[in-house]
Each structure stands twice: as structure tokens, then as C-alpha cells.
Amino acid sequence: MKKYILFFLLPFFLLACKNETNTPTNSDEYIGDKYVPSELRAAFNENAIRLALTHMEKTAKLELLPIDVPSDTIKIFYYALVDVYNARTLLEREISPDTMQLILSIRVWIWRALNNFFASVDTTFPWTTSWKEGQPLTGYPQIDNLIQQYEISLRQFMYTQNGKKNMVDFYTKRPLNLAALCYDFTQIPGVISASPNHLYTTGDPYPVIQASILPAYIELKYFFPNSRNSLGHQWIFRVWKNHTVLYVR
Q: Which of 34, 96, 125, 156 could form a disulfide with 190 if both were Cys (CB 3.0 to 4.6 A apart)?
């Protein structure tokens, strides 16, 4: 039988008894991310965006979903990550401080960029002249609408040897569902292909966070590998709506 250790974040006291099927009520004393260091807030926000994209991908291909990542979904994951941080002192009753620090440093696998994508274009189309000159706006409404709506800047125009099929490096001001944005770019005559920048790894095992939105709570799973031939360590936390954190052993 699995054992559970359950904590309230505010006020800080250990619950004597809790049935995991109960749905706690919201707390009026929630401190949020007030005491989370700025570098961790930034990391949690990026983690939350990536977890939200993974959650979206469970319903349909990302190419067919909205370009803007739903802020409500991001907030759900962000505050679940914050809640684990806020519970760290009581969680250290069961997890050593060094291990807790390791858990909080784990990031969602960053194999896919959130702000950077590439487009391959046919430069025989007149509107591509602006891109060759480093100007993102082309005078072609279908493109310019996307450029302006999603605050896209052009970082570099890269020429190929034959000079016809060239690559353009774009950056977006805010994190987006780039798969959907790239799909919209490929519907424009003259754009041959478009895809998010993929960040390649060495192939070695890497730490990762997985998350699920369940009816009663958010479940966060943190993985840290030992080696290629080992599953390593896993820590599972459940976070309720009132910011109660349950550590599953």
C-alpha cells in the first residue's frame, strides 16, 4: 500500500488525517509566489508553458490548436509548481534538503523552442525582398497580420547556394504554440516550410517533469535519471485547489 504525507502550505501545520478523494476548499491566506526567488519564478513559468503545451497536445495535434497558449492552463501548472516550492520546509520531513533542492531545479524537457522558428521561402516571390533586407513586414497582408499579431521579429536571412530556397530565422516576443504558427505560415504562397527550432540533446538521460490535470488535483511527477541503464529517482506530488500538497511515496 502506498503511504502519503500531506501538508497545508498556509497555515504551516501537518494535517493529522486526510482522505485523498476529498476536494479541499480554497484558502484565503494563499501567499502565491511572493517568496519565490525571481530566477525560480522564471523557470516555473517556462515549465508551466511547456506543461500547458503538452496538456493541449493530448486533445489534438498542436498544429490545429490555438497559437496563443491558454493563460488559464499556464496558471494552473505554474501555481502547482509554486505550491511544491512553498511546501518545501514541511516536505523536508520526508525529503532531505539537498534532494528537495534537486527536485526544484528539474525542468521540463526543452527540446522545442517557445520563441524561435525557421521558415524556408521561395525568393522568386516579390514580397520576400523585405525579408532579404531584414524587414519583417512585407506589404503582403496575410504575412504582415501574423507578424504584427504575434510580435514577430526577423533575426537573420540565410542564403543558400542556389539563392532560390532560403531560410529565415524568426523570434517571437512571447512564448507561443509555434507548431500552429508555423502551420499558418506554410499556408502562405511562397513559404515552402516552417518549423519551430528544435533544441537537440546528446541522447543522455535527462531530468524531466510531467503533469496531469485530474478532477481533484494536479499531479506533478519529477524524474531524475542515474544513468542510461537506470530509471533513476521519481518523486510524485499532488496539489489540490486550496494549495494543499500531498507527497506520494
A: 125
